[in-house]
Amino acid sequence: MFPLKRPATRSAALCLTAAFMAGCAHDPTGSAAQSQDPTDTRRIPLTVIERAGQTMAFVPVTIEGEGPFTFVLDTGASASAVDDDVARELNLPRTGERRPISGVIGTDRVPVVEVRSWKAGQIPLDAADAIVIDMPEAQGTQNIEGLLGSDVLSDFGRVTIDYTDEVLLLPQ
Q1: Residue 38: what pLDDT?
Q2: CB-hemisphere CA count at 13 Å for 44?
Q3: If you average pLDDT over residues 18-23, what whole number do you get?
Q4: HEC readout, the chain
Q5: Is the pLDDT of residue 162 over 90?
Q6: 3 preceded by a cis bond (ω within 30 of 0)
Q7: β-bridge partners, 113
Q8: What band does 53 get if pLDDT is binned at 50, 70 and 90?
Q9: Can you give the pTM of this predicted structure?
Q10: How far apart (Å, rounded) are the C-alpha atoms in residues 116 and 104?
């Protein structure tokens, strides 16, 4: 379990913890990675960590030219998230909107920021809104500074996570 920085964000962290585990399942045969034409893909290095029977993939994300920050790659999360410390450090503009999120122990409404310029590895991402939450600290792993979800990944149409070679493959 991830210890929390502040109890007020327990529902957000529990929601993300469940999303981390759900979105990080993998294909042990590697068949998905083999079906993609390597000349038609862009590669982003990942850090893959297996702990307590769970697998998590981390992707380096640069925001507004700063970083890289460690984001969890989570295809099961509908919204990307930025840790509140990172949003504050980068002075990311708030939209004024507060979005609801749900966790095991309840719901909360969290602020939303505009991320105008960001990259996963060296691959530019479209400008997007991201929710701001207090990301859980994962014992024995890297500091988690955000979450890259399906709202951003779906822009590529197809993504392949190669856990063996620790790489995210995106089409050109």
Answers
A1: 55
A2: 27
A3: 42
A4: CCCCCCHHHHHHHHHHHHHHHHHCCCCCCCHHHHCCCHHHEEEEECEEEEECCEEEEEEEEEECCEEEEEEEECCCCCCCEEEHHHHHHCCCCEEEEEEEEEECCEEEEEEEEEECCEEECCEEECCEEEEEECCCCCCCCCCCCEEECHHHHHHHCCCEEECCCCEEEEEC
A5: yes
A6: no
A7: 94, 130
A8: confident
A9: 0.75
A10: 31
Q: Would you state the pLDDT for residue 106? A: 78
Q: Contact 171/160 with Cβ under 8 angstroms?
A: no
Which structure tokens are listed for 16? 């993300």
Would you say how long the chain is, in residues? 172
> What is the rounded CA–CA span in Å between residue 5 and residue 150?
26
Tokens of 31: 């068949």
| 56 in Cβ contact with 110 (< 8 Å) | no
